[in-house]
Design goal:
Elements (H helix, E strand, L loop, with lengths): L1 H12 L6 H9 L13 E7 L2 E8 L30 E4 L2 E3 L5
Helix pairs in contact: 1-2
């Protein structure tokens, strides 16, 4: 997922236009867009006055979201990187944040 973020951030730094479709394309270029358990990495985007924000989510080893909706991860939550492989792995704007709830 770090490589996926690096590809997206490289496009941002080069000032290339990004939208949800382009971000999904960049994610698919790394490991076919799949996480370590073979599940598709989920992509979320949010437009803000400062520009487009993006989020990548691996649903962990159990393949289920820890929250009711993917976009909930855009809410301000404290970082909590855990060693529980069942917890979601979340990157927002290239930074790793995990907020597991299973």
């Amino acid at each position: 997922m770090q490589s996926m973020c690096a590809g997206i951030d490289g496009e941002k730094e080069a000032r290339r236009p990004l939208d949800e479709a382009r971000i999904k394309e960049l994610v698919r270029r790394v490991a076919g867009g799949r996480d370590a358990w073979g599940n598709s990495v989920l992509v979320g985007v949010r437009s803000t006055p400062a520009g487009l924000r993006y989020m990548l989510v691996s649903m962990g080893s159990d393949g289920r979201l820890d929250v009711d909706t993917l976009l909930r991860y855009f809410d301000e939550v404290p970082p909590s990187v855990r060693d529980d492989a069942r917890s979601d792995i979340v990157f927002i704007d290239g930074k790793d944040v995990t907020h597991g709830g299973k």
